[in-house]
Amino acid sequence: MNIQTLLKEPISTGQLLTNLRSRLEPMAIKSAYISNHMPELVAETIANAEQAYKGMMELPGTGGKCEFVGNPPCWLERRHDDNEFLWQLNRMTHWQDLLEAYSLTQDDKYGRKVIDEMLNWVETVEIHDDMIDYPISYFEECHPLRALELGIRTYKTWPLVLEHLGHTELFTEAVLEQYLGAVYKQVKILRKVSPILWPKADHNHFLMECLGVLTTALYFPELQEAEEWKTYAMDGIERCCRAQLTEDGGQIEGCPSYHNGCMFWFGLAVILAKRFHFQFSDKYMEMFRKNLDYSIYSLRPTGKCVPVGDSHANHLAIMGGVYGYLALDDLTWLGLTTNLIGIQETMHEASKHVWRALDVQRFYEDLNALHSKHYECDKLTTFWNRELHQAIIRSGWDAEALSFLFTCRSPIQNFHAHIDLMSFDFTALGKNMICDPGIFCYREDEDRKQFKGANYHSTLLIDERDHFEYISSFQYGPQKIGAIYNVEDRGFYQMASAYHMNYEPMVHHRHIALVDKELVVIADRVEGLERNGIQRYFHLDYTEVEVASQAVIATNDTANLAIFTYPQEEVDLLPGRLSDENDIARAATRIRFQGTYSGTATLLTVLVPYKGGQAPAVNIQDVGDCCYEFNYGGCYRIVVKDNDMEIYKPV
Length: 651
What we know:
lyase; Hepar_II_III_C; periplasm; Heparinase II/III-like protein
């Protein structure tokens, strides 16, 4: 491609390269500072780069281990029956380590490896002019030109080639011509297909795709379309803000991992604005700031986010804090994550983003300042996102706190949701106790179906039926209304209430309350039964579980859990699995309580976390008229109504 035909004015490739270099960051200064002050990061980066140099990568489907993907990579090869393997290979995220290693060591082998791979990709993945007129469905299929990969490459990895190599002799005029020709073709396609794929701007894919268009326009303002691309992308990112960031705080998909990703993407847009001297609207900045709080709310006291929906139990809240700091010059969210995750892990995760900082020295010094400071959290312990239909209730902001996330959203917002109406995730005394299972994989297989299914979540089923039909990994049957309709702090207890109609004509209400900061009470009320089986599932992060005469007891070296129920039902211990990252799962235990009922059934569950060898004793008694009593350091009375649960205790 003759790149001069792409430019506003006919300038030479040499002049274009000179212009580009004037816009690049002072990478030599950055790398020198990082080399002198962050030796652990340097060592980790070089070790990762060595793996990538050998063609070894960890990708979806590889079972959490590195696998040889070719040298150069086999860009068109789909392995392990997993589309994500090919897609993520073609995002070139391994280039980041190679390029950073080059800047840190000045060893040409790392930079030349990236250049060689880039040129090989351009040759292997041919982009024809007529592709822009392909059916829109083509850009959702499994190949390197899926729209999302077009966006990720052009905002995240290919610009790093410019930053780390653009000043060097490795990045020649001939390489620039190949680079710009390939990027131009990709963004031209993206500019057309992305707004058709995401007309409502209500998905994280559209946000990344807009970032790809914006980044290209900023690095290459000489392009004929640059101004239009910049205007389009800024407007698209503003639309994403309005469509995706909720007034209560929390990205619209309701998945904490994707929310934290969005804090990176929305924050990166602000960093680009700072660097290239433009601004987003006041409303955008206000919503970004407000939504950073959800990164803290959805963080378990044990330091990993709740993996509800397509989420992993990971430390990505740190990334939200990093980009809150880089965009807003505010350490609040990083400081709060440090309280729960710990300074060492926070420093380790945050340091991975140091290259994005416009002022590396200040970033490093401010990070180190966290060592000597404890951030007092002034945020409420009862959180209700009315749009996401999530309630997050906790006893405090320390690692030993009791905390649960409760969710009930139907119809779903998109297919990153799981079949988990009125499911919850519970942490106490430094231990994850009842857990959302996480993603495990995106493959079209039985693992995906299992991890998304209702009986892998801590919720109630009728006749062992999912709340709605699972058709495929990203397709469900119709869904009826389901919602959290009340969340209240009532003094000694904080409560959330929900219902759903997906078993119509049967209706299920669930009330869940944190009581006296030491136990959880759950009341399930199901109406319209005609000799139907009810199954209540609890997915425990324990392998040592036994059924005792009055309770189910789960034990662990950290903390234990006793589960008491009324009425007494058949109890089964079933195998479970919990996944914190792709393709890796650990053993767990699912508990199933089940019975057969007609008319209206009211079922009570009391969760008591404790430490030590002596299990608590709780005897739940029915005292009539949907009223129940039990003793635990005093007498509690539970009154279950049609759409409420009230708790009393002696004054």
